[in-house]
Structures are given as C-alpha cells and as structure tokens.
Amino acid sequence: MNIRISTGSLEIISSGTLRTGFESSVHFDFADIWFKFQFLDSDEPSNAEWLVSDDAKGMTCKVFVKDGLFGITSPERLGTLEDRAFFVSFEVSKPSQKHDLWVLNYSFYLGDKVDG
After folding, report:
1. Which residue(s) pair with 26 in the sheet?
2. 63-102 tens-digit pLDDT
3. Measured between alpha carbons, how far is 27 from 2 in angstroms, rounded to an integer?
4. What is the mean pLDDT of the chain?
C-alpha cells in the first residue's frame, strides 16, 4: 500500500527521529541530491549555516547548537528534487554534553513543480 502524506501544498516524502551513533553528522541520499546535517557545539546563539557542494548536487547544513536545542520549524527550501521544489524542517538536540550523541527530528518535503 502506498501512502501519500501532505500538509497544505507540501508532500512529506520522509520524516522521522533518529539518534546519531556517537557521530556529529547525518547524511541523506535522495535520487538527485544529497543532504548532510553536521552538528557543532557553540558558545554563540544557535544557528544554521547552509553550504552547497562544489558540484551543486548536495548541501551541508552546519547546525551550531548552544544549550542543547535548535531547530527550523518552517520548511526551508533546499533546491529541486524530481523537478519539484525540495524543502526541509528540523529540530536537533544534544541530550548529554558528555558524548557526541545528537537527536534529530526531521521532515523533507516536495512542493510545486519547478519549470526548466
């Protein structure tokens, strides 16, 4: 059985919660693009920095986290996937300052068809 999940005009293509295995990054591979979260402790206010790969086929989101929690609750456009607008929203937390263990809640979405 195929299930299609949407919220407004966005189709949710992947959503979940995961714990890193004592690593500070998570990598997702889609058909036409890859996406990586890289988590970093920070003394500055929490924020995210978006870096496009040299070949423009992927993107890294460096997530700087202060006090163990940060997220982007509104979908952020990443680019195009399968000729449709491609978005992500996420929240990340670090349950223990003793270990490089992170918890990621994420959703990837497809939006409207993109011309050319």
Report:
1. 37
2. 998 887 888 878 999 888 889 999 999 999 988 777 788 9
3. 25
4. 89
The alpha-carbon radius of gyration of the chain (Å, integer) is: 15
Neighbours of 22 (CB within 10 A): 9
Amino acid at the residue 111: G
CB-count burial class (<10 Å; 0-12, 13-18, 19+) for 94: buried
Residue appearing with tokens 């790969």: 53
Question: Residues 41-63, buried b or exposed e (16+ Cβ, 10 A)?
Answer: eeeeeeebeeeeeeeeebbbbbb
Residue among 52, 91, 59 at smallest CA distance from 75: 91
Quote the DSSP letter at residue 46: P
For the CA atoms of 27, 63, 6, 34, the dihedral, rounded to the nearest 10 degrees, stands at -30
Cα angle: 1, vertex 90, 109; to 5 degrees:
40
